[in-house]
Amino acid sequence: MSTLVLDHVSRWYGNVVAANDVTMTIGPGVTGLLGPNGAGKSTLIAMMGGFLAPSAGTVTLDGTPVWRHPGIYRTIGLVPETEAMYDMVTGWQFVVANARLQHLPDAEGAALAALETVEMVDAKDRDISTYSKGMKQRVKMAIALVHDPMVLLLDEPFNGMDPRQRLHLMDLLRRLGEQGRTVLFSSHILEEVEEIAGTIEVLVAGRHAASGDFRRIRRLMTERPHKYTISSSDDRRLAAAIIADGSADTVDLTSGNLAVQAPDLGVFVHALPRLARDSGIRLLDVSPADESLESVFAYLVAR
Amino acid sequence: MNPVVMRLTMSGLLGRRRAILFVLLPLLLLLLAGLVRWASGGEPQSTVDLTSHFALGTLLPLMCLLIGTGVIGTEIDDGSIVHLLAKPVPRRTILWSKLIVAWGASLVFAVLPIIAAVEIAGDEGTRLGWAYGVTAALAALAYTAVFVALSVVTRNVVIIGLLYALLWETVLGGYVPGVRNVSIRQWALAAAENMLGDRAPVWGVTSDVSLSAALVLLAATTIGAIVLAVRRLQTLPLTTRD
């Protein structure tokens, strides 16, 4: 079990702040680092992987600072975003070379196992220059896994993958997390994170905007307005009742259904059944319109 | 030294398309040497002119620049060096491994062709061959180390390298005598001057620097470049700004 700790980490380039006073602990299991492009995800991962010095603060792996300690790479496996590899060698040669650089006693055995894990055994003897983007991604994954690391850092690992490869990688990351490894991946695509990450760290404009599981992040933001889409036996009368009651600020009938925006979740969900019953209206469907991570995210970006 | 890093470096150096220059440029030199022989009938003075100007002044720094950037600069540029750096291998070892490959390559693709060109163009026994061989080897050690270091320090290594080798050493060195005191080529030429003895002034093989000073300066430059390169590689930031 390994834990990465970021303690008040900042990084600036000249007067551009890429990471701003970020404190987080990344433990065993799958953690998703979520944020829009330009949020500082790559900067943060570079600092976690010892490839960039924090301008302030410290990044430690089980108590050891990662900056200028190449020894940490025995514990860390890294899947960089950059696609470039050694084009003129075969996938097999490159993974074996990486296994040797990890000083593994059975480099070829480890390389074969890693290539099997990412399903690249069939194409292993082709030059890397002939690989597709997804195949390169899988070879990078094999390189990161070849020494069986306890910590895995992946920068935008799903980029360029087709849906089948994506599912396969999601499955693999989930399995690695279940084995007690510390897996952190970055993404700007919400579904990916929601799908497999037990913990989500949200990064917006270099700031650590939220942390926890999806629902907890959602609950952290109770102050934000909640939107519901309602269909009932008489939307128009229900809208009038809701407005009269005062439990919602906005009702909107233009989209065909009744859309409601309520400032307080608790008050509204208790008021709605009562209002419907009192007016003799049947509620057919009440669904939160914004429970997806996307809207959480949009809210955080706008804040 | 790490054999895995050396093997990967070698395949990176020789596997890219630019590797064809490692053959073409020396061939060009050998061709010129043949022409010089045909025109002068093996007169050592013509050999000296060809070697001092084209071989040592242009070909050698150019080859060392291509090789020095080829062993590490391209990997830093495209980011693939991350795979080497994310290993429990000291950065010092990685740099030395790459430097040794670069030195070997500059010996094979630059120094040996220069010796061969001298012999083809015309020599007095093997006197010029030895003198220019030692000079080229000394210059290659320093040039390669400097260009490897520059590759780690800056992404504009090719421009800076060309400016240094062609503008500083060749053009400015031709007009401003003081510049010749700060020139790898001049330092290395001190060896040739010394080895040629009484023939040196006759053929015009002269250096502005004494041999002992030249050797110290060459060693200091080479070692300084290596120290700088190791330091920078230890703290090489590897990230896009998102």
Question: Care to count the β-strands of chain A?
Answer: 14
Q: How many beta-strand runs of chain B?
A: 0
Structural class of chain A: alpha/beta
| SS strand fraction of chain B | under 5%
For the terminal residues of chain B, how far apart are their CA atoms?
34 Å
Number of contiguous helices of chain A: 10
SSE string of chain A: EEEHEEEHHHEHEHEEHEHEEHEH
Helix content of chain B: over 70%
Number of helices of chain B: 10
* Distance between the amino and carboxyl termini of chain A: 36 Å
**Uncertain ranges of chain A:** none
What is the overall shape of chain A? elongated
Strand content of chain A: 25-35%
Oligomer: heterodimer
Largest sheet data of chain A: 6 strands, mixed
The structure class of chain B reads mainly alpha
Average pLDDT value of chain A?
88
**Overall residue-averaged pLDDT value of chain B:** 92
Name the chain pair whose interface involves the most residues: A-B, 40 and 32 residues
Question: How is this fold's topology laid out?
Answer:
The complex is a heterodimer of chains A (303) and B (242).
Chain A: E1 4-13, E2 16-26, E3 29-34, H1 41-48, E4 56-61, E5 64-65, E6 76-79, H2 91-101, H3 107-117, H4 133-145, E7 151-154, H5 163-178, E8 182-187, H6 190-196, E9 199-204, E10 207-212, H7 214-220, E11 226-232, H8 235-245, E12 250-252, E13 258-262, H9 265-279, E14 283-288, H10 293-302
Parallel strand pairs in A: 3-8, 3-9, 6-7, 7-8
Antiparallel strand pairs in A: 1-2, 1-4, 4-5, 9-10, 11-13, 11-14, 12-13
Helix pairs in contact in A: 2-3, 3-4, 8-9
Chain B: H1 3-15, H2 20-40, H3 44-78, H4 82-85, H5 91-121, H6 127-153, H7 157-175, H8 184-196, H9 199-203, H10 211-234
